[in-house]
Structures are given as structure tokens and as C-alpha cells.
Amino acid sequence: MSSATDCVATLIDDFQKRRPIRAGSLIITVYGDSIVPRGGTVWLGSLSKLVEPIGINERLVRTSVYRLTHETWLRGEKVGRRSYYRLSGPGRRRFEQAFKRVYHGAQPPWSGQWTLALLTQLSADRRQQIRDELEWLGFGSFAQGVLAHPTLSCAETMVALQELDAADDTIVMQTQAMEPMTSKPLRLQVRDSWNLDELAELYQRFLVKFRPLWNALNAENHLGQEECFIARTLLIHEYRKVQLRDPLLPDELLPTAWEGRYAHQLCRNLYRLLYERAERWLDRHLETAEGPLPAPGPSFYQRFGGLE
Questions:
Q1: Closest CA to 4 of 214, 208, 233, 170
Q2: Mean pLDDT, consecutive 10-residue segments, the chain of 308 residues?
Q3: What is the pTM assigned to this prediction?
Q4: Rounded to a whole number, what is the distance in angstroms from the first to the last CA of the chain?
Q5: DSSP letters of the chain?
Q6: How far apart are CA 240 and CA 235, in angstroms?
Q7: Rounded CA gap, 158 and 86, in Å?
Q8: Distance CA 91, CA 85 (A)
Q9: Number of other CB atoms surrounding residue 143 within 10 Å
């Protein structure tokens, strides 16, 4: 069995081999996982030192931060000769939508109702645009021009459509719960509408990548603080990429042996093993204009159903 240190080195090597290196995406992971819970602002120099061991040099950090600022993810501020960056207003809203999925706890029981969005009265171009946006929110296609979501309410759907300027041209309705709530044709429809086979394959790759680290830490948990930060960052980075494609369907609609359930358990368990030492590393190496980053807020410790 490989040691935990060897496993972290393999994770770093896998990340560095990818072309092109998605430095901006990793920086957003660092902000979401490590910086936002501590006030959200960090000195660019300390951010560069933080991600350098993962394979992102100072020049690439500056280029990526410039691009993220141009894309309205980040907002910069000069204090003397130093630059400090935080998530912008739009960036924070995007962050909250993406990251709350990553750290979610157990899902409540499903009511058995469906919210339907009928796009039949939209022009062809608008229909495809609205469909893409609703699918990002977790809707699946039940039939041509008919999208369905098992947990998003009509009110939440209307808010999303209003933001897309499509509320007046879309029909939204909610079904009644029926018994039984699931049936063979419904399960087949769900598998087709959300392409669960492809999603299961992505989760399986995540499990293969991170199970060796879990096994090594259970055998000998001696990782240093920096290694814990790197492992935690790459763990959330890889899990976030799959989560963004997961509609988070109710358990009642998923297969009994669902890879996404196993991936969530593995991510949660690894995070609980790594987070304390990673936080000590952040205490020592991240700076704001006033000094070290403040301690994480209470919401940080609610991740994955509770860290303490």
C-alpha cells in the first residue's frame, strides 16, 4: 500500500499532467473552500505561495486572477504596493450556488411532486438557451420542450426564469404526489433524462482517484499541514467538478448502489480527516491587509453535516 504522502504526490502529479492546466478553476476552489469562510479577502502574494506546490507558478496565478477579475469572479484592491482580491458580488452568488452543493448533508425525503417547465412557447433559439440554463439547475428533459425537477419549487423556478427574462413565455406547473412515488417506467425515464450512467462513471473515477488516500490515512495518518491543505484542495476541486453535473436527485429516484452516494461519503470522511491540519497551514500562510486571515466562521463547521 502506498503511503499517504505518496498518494498526495500522485494527486499533484495527476493535476500537473492535465493540459491545459485549469489554474483559474483551482483558484476558485481555493477561494470557496479556504478563503471565503475566513472573510474572503487575501493578498495575492500569499495566494501564489499557497498554490505553487500544486503546480501553479506566480505568473500563472497573476494571469488567472486577472482573467477571473475580467470575468467578474474577483475584485481587486491595492493597499500600498500589495494587491488583495476577494470574490465580487456576482462571483459570490455563483460561488454560493456551486459550493453549497459540495458540502450538502443528507437530503430530506422526497415529497413525490414534480415541477414542470414547458418551453413550447419559446422560439427555437431561446428554448435551447433556457433549456441549458434549467438543466444547469438540475432539470431533466422528459419530452421535447418539457423539463422536470423533483425538488425545486414552482416559486424557485419562476425566480430563475425571471432572471433569464423568460418567465412570461414559460409555463410552470407542479404535479401531485402519487402512490407509489416511483415505478419501473419512471426510473427508466429518470436514467434517460439525466444520463445517470455517464454521471456514475464520473463518480467512479473520483472514487478510484481518492480511495488510495483514504486507505493510507487509515493505516498511518501522519500527513503534514501543507500536505493536508493540498489533499483537501484537490479533493474538493475534483468533487466539485462532478457535483456541477449532478442534479442531486432524491434518493428515492436513484439506484440502490449509487456511485454518487459512495463518492459523497468518501469526500466527507476524507475532509473530516484533513481539515484541521489544513486550517493550521492557512493560519500561518494567508494574509489580509490587516494581517493573518481571521478564523473560519461558524458555517464552516457545518460542512458535510458537521465537522466537529
A1: 214
A2: 92 90 91 92 94 93 94 90 89 79 82 95 93 91 95 92 93 90 87 91 97 95 94 97 89 91 96 96 90 90 89
A3: 0.89
A4: 29
A5: ---HHHHHHHHHHHHHHSSS--HHHHHHHHIIIIIGGGTSEEEHHHHHHHHGGGT--HHHHHHHHHHHHHTTSEEEEEETTEEEEEE-HHHHHHHHHHHHHHT--PPPPP-S--EEEE-TTS-HHHHHHHHHHHHHTT-EEEETTEEEESSS-HHHHHHHHHHTT-GGG-EEEEPPP-SSS--HHHHHHHHHHTTHHHHHHHHHHHHHHHHHHHHHHHH-----HHHHHHHHHHHHHHHHHHHTT-----GGGS-SS-HHHHHHHHHHHHHHHHHHHHHHHHHHH-EETTEEPPPPPGGGGGGGG---
A6: 8
A7: 30
A8: 12
A9: 11
**Whats the size of the chain, residue-wise?**
308
In one-letter notation, the amino acid at residue 194 is: W
Cell of 5: 504522502
Which cell goes with 249?
A: 436527485
